[in-house]
Known about the structure:
Blueprint: E1 4-8, H1 12-24, E2 29-33, H2 46-49, H3 61-75, H4 77-80, H5 106-118, H6 129-134
Parallel strand pairs: 1-2
Amino acid sequence: MASKVVVVSGGVIGSAVAYFLRAADPNVQVTVIKRDPTYARSLSALSALSAASIRQQFSTPLSVRMSLFGIEFLRSIGERLEVNGARPSIDLHEGGYLFLATPAGAPTLAENHALQRSLGADACKVHAARFVIARLDARTRRPPDHREKCRVKEG
């Protein structure tokens, strides 16, 4: 006999619970109850509709790994959640972060960077502030798209 589960609220957590229950056991019957079954504009869809960022720059291996898992899940959400040929799109736009440190904090920043890189995070270390300023997009005054790899020597 298949298990039956009802998840009340289809926000990020409720939807994740439903998804991973089915991924772990395809025989479980999961029903998600939410006000907007299309997920288009409901309050519980705000996390997908927001301009929130997903960073990978943490100081513990577990936090870095969880973030890497999360961003990979979001990058492949269309394939993962495809139903009868219909692929959802969350219009994911990946940005970046700039972490600055004083001379006293630089060793901690370097240690965190080494950890992040060792775990596969897409993080660049830049030593000169003038390089960062020069790299701002002239039109938007923002850093360039994160997918453009750093052109500075790691060190």
